[in-house]
Amino acid sequence: MLALLLVHATAYVCAPLLVRYLGRHAFWLLALPSAGTAVWALANAPGDEPLTRSISWIPSIQLDITLHMDQLSWIMTLIISIIGALVLAFCAGYFHDDEPDLERFAAHLTAFAGVMLGLVWSDNLLLLYMFWELTTVLSYLLVGHHNDREESRQAASQALVVTTFGGLAMLAGMVLLGLEAGTYSLAAILANPPEPSAVVGWAIVLILVGAVSKSALVPFHFWLPGAMAAPTPVSAYLHAAAMVKAGVYLVARFSPGFGDRPEWLVTVLVLGCATMLIGGYRALRQHDLKLLLAYGTVSQLGFLIILFGTSTQAAGLAGLTMLVSHAIFKAALFLTVGAVDHAAGTRDLRYLHGLGRRMPWLMVASTLAGASMAGVPPLLGFVGKEAAYASLLHGEQWWSPIVLTVAVTGSILTFAYTARFLYGTWGPGTETTEPTPLHANPVVLTAVPVTLGAASLLLAPISQYGEPLVQDWLHTLPPIDHAVHLGLWHGFNVVLLLSAVTLLAGYLLFHGRTAIEMWQRAVPHPAPAVVIYRAIMQGLDRISLEVTGLLFKGSLQQSLSLILLVFVAFPGTALLLALIDVSGRDTVGLRWYENPAQLGVAVLTAIAAVAAVTSLRRFRAVFLVGFTGYALALLFLLHGAPDLALTQVLVETVSLVVFVLVLRRFSGHFPDKLETKERVWRITLGVLAGAVVTGTAIIASLSRTAAPDSTNMPRSAVEFGGGYNIVNVILVDIRAWDTMGEISVVLVAATGVASLIYLQSTNMRRLRGNLAEERRSRRQTRIDPGTTDDVGWLPALNTLPPTRRSLMLEVVARLLFHPIMLWSLYLLLTGHNAPGGGFAGGLVAGLGLTIRYLAGGPAELRAAMPVMPGVLLGSGLFLSAGAGLASMLAGGDVLQSWTFDIPVPLIGDVHLVTSTFFDIGVYLVVVGLMLDILRSLGSALDYRINAASGRQIEGDYEPMGERR
Amino acid sequence: MNQEFTMVEINYWAIAPLLVVVAGALIGVLVEAFVARASRHNVQLGVGLVTYLAALVVLLAKSRTEHGLTMGGSVVIDGPSVFLMAVILCFALLSLLVMAERFGGPAADAFTPMGAATPGSDLERSAESAGWGTTEAVPLMMISVVGMMLFVSSGDLLTMFVALEVLSLPLYVLTGLARRRRLLSQEAALKYFLLGSFSSAFFLFGAALLYGYAGSVDIARIALAIGAASPVLDGLLLPGVALVLIGLLFKVGAVPFHAWTPDAYQGAPTPVTGFMAAATKIAAFGAILRLAYVGLSGNRWDWEPALIAIAALTMVIGAVMTVTQTDVKRLLAYSSIAHAGFILVAVMSFDVTGVSGAMFYLVCYGFTTIAAFALVTLVRHEGSEATDLSQWAGLGRRSPVVAGAFAICLLAFAGIPLTSGFTAKFAAFAPAISHGGAAGAWLVVIGVLASAVTAYVYFRIIVTMFFEEGAGDVVAITPSTLTTIAIAIGLVLTILLGVLPGPVLEAATQSAQFLR
Question: What is the pTM of this model?
Answer without folding.
Answer: 0.82
